[in-house]
Amino acid sequence: MKVLTANRLTDGEVVFWRGGHWVERFADAEIFAADDPAGQGAEAVALGQPTVVVEPYLIDIAEGPAGVAPVSYRERIRALGPTNEPEHGKQAEGGAAIEALLAATGAARSTGRVDLIRRK
Q1: Most buried of 12, 79, 100, 102, CB within 10 angstroms?
Q2: What InterPro entries does the entry give (predicted)?
Q3: Phi, psi of 18 (to 5 degrees)
């Protein structure tokens, strides 16, 4: 499973793709099957939005003990928002989606991020 992510150009906010537009919450992101060409299609559309987002790429996600979460530790941090204080960022909102992100384990790299690094 994969999710398309980027940073919004105007404020640097981490955003996720959902049905043709960007949303701020990981829980609202559109999930693509690993081999679904729609994921690459969405990435291609996002790459054509240089005045909206910066560096869009697909990340790997998996079902964890509490729900769906990014495989990569880096991407879980991005989805939670600032980690300097639990009362800051998206993690302060709480809820099932945040609990799933906090419960996820492992530090594997997302293949999408590795592919992005290789493109440069």
Answers
A1: 79
A2: DUF2849
A3: -150, 105
Cα separations (Å) of 20 from 4, 29, 39, 41, 67? 11, 11, 11, 10, 24
Higher pLDDT, 68 or 101: 68
User: How far is it, in rounded angstroms, from Cα 27 to Cα 40?
Assistant: 20
Instruction: Give me the residue label for tokens 């960022």.
Output: 89
Q: What is the pLDDT of residues 28-63, one digit of tens each?
A: 999 999 888 888 899 999 988 888 999 999 999 988
In 9-112, beta strands by DSSP E: 14-18, 21-23, 53-63, 68-70
Structure tokens at 45: 């559309």
Residue 14 has pLDDT above 90, yes or no: yes
- Sequence-distant (≥ 6) Cβ neighbours of residue 5 within 8 angstroms: 14, 15, 16, 17, 29, 56, 57, 58, 59, 75, 78
The whole-number average pLDDT for the span 89-96 is 69
